[in-house]
Amino acid sequence: MEDLDRDWETCLNRFQLELALEGAFYLIAFILALRGEEVPMVEIRGLAKHWEQSAQHAKPHVVITLLGRFKSETGECYHMMPILCTTPQGLEQRKWIERVLTEYQRRGVVSGYMFRNPDGSKSKNSSMNRKFNDRLEAVQASKPQLINRDMDVCEEYGVSRSFRRGGTSTATYNGALALVTELNGRWRKKEQSGASRPSITVREHYMDVQMVLDQLLEFSRYL
User: Up-side HSE of residue 49: CA atoms within 13 Å toward CB?
Assistant: First the structure.
């Protein structure tokens, strides 16, 4: 993320949203160990709704909200996934997500998908793939000890699987138990089942999340 931070300091205002989205994409994907196609499910309104409250909590965090296909009697069809504001390794996801929200507010965008096409529809994860490969190729050129120069970056890496594998393997290497990893991905089983959720308000949903906040934040503590 150091390269992205340097780019942020020098980029023109008209490119700030694009750069903020790139940084937020990488961090959300890695911290939650998401597949590339899952990241564009992030929704702005739900994320912003809990922004201030989560920052003032005894355990400051960010609530990532993913729009889902499951049924809901209340119409609030998103998964709440809390993550640390900053990981022990210094990944600053709150900073990058705040940059995205600020840029959208300047444009009057307060709802819908965070990663969107010009018409507001959900973008495809492939739209970030070229940028991701460009970043890796720059690392390969400057730090061959990290990525061998003989490796075909485009063949070996991609947003579809790299962040999920990277987040899971890093957490495991740092001591995360299998139960922690499974808990981090439990939302995926609910999403795939399409099962109905109980009729509760957004506030009640967030209260439920807070009751098990320590467990839900555990995965990002290993990153």
Answer: 16
